[in-house]
Write a structure and sequence with these properties.
D-amino Acid Aminotransferase, Chain A, domain 1; 4 domains; 8-stranded mixed beta sheet
Amino acid sequence: MKEYDFIPVLLGSDRNVYGMAVSFHEQYNIRSIALGKCDFLETRYTKIIDLYQNKDIEKKEVFLKELKKIYENNKDKKLLLIACSDTYMKLIVENKKELEKYFLVPYIDEELMNKLVLKEEFYKTCEKYNLDYPKTKIIDKENISIDFNYPVIIKPSDSVSYFKTDFPGKKKVFIVYNENEYNNTINNIYNSSYKGNLIVQEYIEGDDTTLRVMNCYVNRRHHVTFMALGNILLEEKTPKSIGDYDAIIPTYDEKLFKKMKDFLESINYVGYANFDFKLDKKTNTYKLFEINIRQGRSSSFTTVAGCNLTKYVVDDFIYDKDMETEYLKNDYLWTIVPKGVIFKYLKNEKLKELVKKLYQEKKVRNILFYKKDFSFKRYYFLTLRTLNYYNKYKKYYVNSNNNDDSNNNKKSLGIIGNDYNKTTKLFNDIVMNTKAKTDQEHIIINIVLTKDIEKENILKNIKYLESIKTSYLIIDIDDESIKDFIKENTNLIIIDNLDKVQELHEENII
């Protein structure tokens, strides 16, 4: 068996890391080193990854120290550094000169990163290179007015900073349907520790199957050596995971490939690139949402379909080969959800027929279940989590045909508060001190955080909660006169303590 003179060093410990580790193992039969904050289920009980953990790894000094330790222990090998999240990608790029003393670093420089990763800068780049993107406005805390029709999308410009913040009701991306909802969402975000700009965009109609994801590799000669386009079948709907993909089939679009290839080569790009698009059926064009200057969490769909994602970076940085551009053209289903979930929630009949055909031909794979990494404990816990997708989709996926969903009959609980930390604690207490600890038993909670407790503003917030069909309300404001004012000016049923929340929940009312 051939022995290779390099080791992949993967930063992170999630699905992306495991997909890359499987790809390296399949292609070169080598174990990867991974360095992350903690171990997620994907990288637990595995024989193909040596995982090192440090809870402070996102701090620059700790990050560099831990990587130098890895270098000192593996000086006899070439070490290929691969980021598997935005946080690690940014740390690599910001410390690229130092890291290149010890590692092979397939990433662009900081100046280009800022033009691509900060979304307001990225959309300027789109204008320059004639890349289609949704109608967009950049807002900040002091300037939130927009001239769009609802619904609209709200997302952070600085995804790395946003990832580190937390607040009740946090989502990766918000879809808001009216002005009150828009104002409350902006208010909740800026009451957290996030202080960056926000991106507001027109909402492009279409289900998950109108989404596309493109993965590319560009070598050190600034030549694109690999391109793959995935047709999304199902996208995650859990609030903190919106934008992650659960099922993908490769597709091909020569015109789109050419446009993105020309773009990457013209900006002197290097490394993995990951693009998210949505097909705008009104104009029949693909609208570009963003670029990640790394491979995406679902990029292993290329490996399962026959184009191993790792060989392009190895050919470039280990063997210094300049290859012709390879395009993924094979039909294969990449999925992390059960077959039953796909057939229940995939509504596109043409794609459903293709999925049936791929199952019949056994061209289907969940990369987390890697046969050469089998252990009873690993497969047991992965199976439990995979089956839990039935509950997750039942809870979160909007499905008009699923009228038997008991959650449709539940009424929602509202919280209005004016102290971020206090209301966050209350939110956590409601979730943790009731029995609402599983996807099947969740409580529907709408939160309004407001620093301004003037009566006019309070009334506006109450009207908003009423407009989204909130039924019960907890007033998390200490001012007794404001509490009395709210009680006099709303038809919502006021709840004074957590015991009453628990009682209503046990009765399946909220």
